[in-house]
Design goal:
Blueprint lengths: L15 E6 L5 H13 L3 E6 L9 H8 L10 E2 L1 E2 H8 L2 E7 L1 H9 L5 H8 L4 E5 L3 H5 L1 H13 L3 E2 L3 E4 L6 E5 L3 H13 L8 E6 L4 E2 L5 E2 L6 H12 L3 E6 L11 E4 L3 H11 L5 E4 L6 E3 L9 H4 L7 E3 L3 H4 L9 E8 L3 H11 L4 E6 L11 E2 L2 E4 L5 E2 L3 E2 H19 L1
Parallel strand pairs: 1-2, 1-5, 5-6, 6-7, 10-13, 10-15, 13-14, 15-18, 18-19
Antiparallel strand pairs: 3-4, 8-9, 11-12, 16-17, 19-21, 20-23, 21-22
The protein binds cytidine-5'-triphosphate (CTP).
Cytidine-5'-triphosphate binds next to helix 12 and strand 18.
């Protein structure tokens, strides 16, 4: 969302990020990255190579991070700068990473502040390559990347395929967008034992039920809540599958996204995967009914006259229909969107659909429900009283839900 306010949040808040910038055109995007990370609550130290300073000035980074941008190796403040930085930071991210940087890092060179700090740190290192597609495909570059990944345990994020620098056409070599790199950093910072290696299945979005080849029955769900949950679960270290009805949102980073259109299609994917899931979250707003018959030709106004009736047939209740296939001991979360008797209806769904948690919200309340970025929810569980949360962003609601899922996973071993 361009211009959207980033609010300080987990897992970036209070964490120290070292952002290495090397000499590539993509360095202009690193300024946005440094700014976003700072606004997410991280303390960002930017280290620029000499070549990076041909593209962007240190002052630009100082303006967005409020901290001195670092360039020189030969500085001592208490201890040698590279040793101190290497020990203090929680994560190192090199974005953009040029072919020259990859070669120097793979060789373990120590001829500038960035490469020397890499030798001095034991923090996770993320590398975001950016270069021309022919350079990226060169066997030497590929060999360096393999060495960094397999021998040194670096995480290689990207590159993406897409428009390269002016005159270079398109291809794999483009640096990931700042928002994607932020998620990779979040993933490195956010690992939680309760979620590590766990399989999480999330349904999201509306479903579309065809009336004819051009029209459908649907609902106003944007998919935001489910996408936020899938992204937050990946940040915590889970393997995540997101089964999504039509949504305009970008695919979450690191998540296996399966796109579907109808309730029947969503049902088939969930039925196939739920047996392997340690956690299932039913966040989709599934259409309860579909046109009993979908016309093969467009419905014509002249042929139909002033009134038209459409018979509806019930769709499967996906949560209920797949209950028997759930993995024993898995945690299952449902949502309840109501317009009246919120708690009573939600408690009924907790029981009848065999959920461990139900996230209830009132669609008539301001800031809750569809098409907004916030939500005010009450979380019901099998033990204890319903917990009413304040108005939060959907990202924060996702974290609250996953905190509770994590506790349940922990208690079930
Ligand atoms: N759900 C589902 N399949 C459906 C309908 C709902 O899996 N066909 C799931 C939703 O993803 C949600 C929960 O069931 O987690 C409750 O959905 P909701 O629409 O609130 O309830 P319904 O069971 O459809 O009941 P009603 O519409 O009558 O309130």
């Amino acid at each position: 969302m361009p211009g959207a306010e980033l609010i300080p949040r987990r897992p970036w808040r209070g964490r120290r990020v070292l952002l290495g910038v090397t000499g590539s055109i993509a360095a202009y995007k690193s300024v946005q990255l440094a700014r976003d990370l700072t606004r997410l609550g991280a303390q960002v130290d930017v280290v620029l190579t000499d070549a990076a300073q041909q593209f962007v000035a240190p002052l630009l980074f100082e303006g967005v991070t409020g901290r001195k941008a670092l360039t020189g190796l030969f500085t001592v403040e208490g201890a040698a700068l590279h040793v101190r930085l290497g020990q203090e930071v929680d994560v190192v991210c090199v974005a953009p990473a040029t072919a020259d940087f990859l070669a120097r890092a793979a060789q373990g060179r120590a001829d500038d502040l960035l490469c020397t700090t890499l030798l001095a740190t034991r923090a996770p290192v993320i590398v975001c390559p950016a270069m021309n597609d022919r350079m990226f495909a060169h066997p030497q570059v590929q060999e360096n990347l393999t060495h960094l990944r397999e021998r040194l345990g670096y995480r290689i994020a990207g590159p993406a395929a897409g428009a390269l620098a002016a005159g270079e056409g398109e291809g794999p070599g483009r640096m990931l967008e700042p928002t994607e790199i932020e998620e990779h950093i979040g993933h490195a910072l956010g690992a939680e034992p309760a979620f590590a290696g766990r399989s999480v299945l999330v349904t999201a979005g509306p479903t579309r039920e065809a009336l004819d080849p051009v029209r459908y029955l649907g609902n106003r769900s944007s998919g935001r809540m489910g996408y936020a949950l899938a992204q937050a679960a990946w940040r915590r270290g889970a393997d995540v599958t997101l089964v999504s009805g039509p949504s305009a949102l970008e695919a979450p980073v690191g998540v296996d996204l399966v796109r579907v259109e109808t309730a029947d299609e969503m049902h088939a994917v969930v039925a196939e995967r739920i047996g392997r899931a340690d956690v299932t979250v039913f966040a989709a707003a599934v259409a309860d009914y579909r046109p009993a018959e979908s016309r093969s030709e467009k419905v014509k106004r002249e042929a139909e006259g002033p009134e038209i009736s459409v018979a509806l047939a019930a769709n499967p209740d996906i949560a209920r229909a797949t209950a028997g296939a759930r993995r024993p001991g898995s945690v299952v979360v449902g949502f309840a969107l109501e317009t009246s008797d919120l708690l009573a209806n939600a408690a009924r769904k907790l029981e009848s659909k065999g959920f461990d948690l139900v996230v209830a919200n009132d669609a008539t309340e301001e800031g809750a429900g569809f098409e907004v970025t916030t939500n005010r929810v009450t979380i019901l569980s099998r033990e204890g009283k319903p917990e009413a949360l304040p108005l939060l962003s959907k990202d924060e609601v996702a974290e609250e839900i996953l905190d509770r899922v994590g506790r349940l996973l922990g208690s079930r071993g």
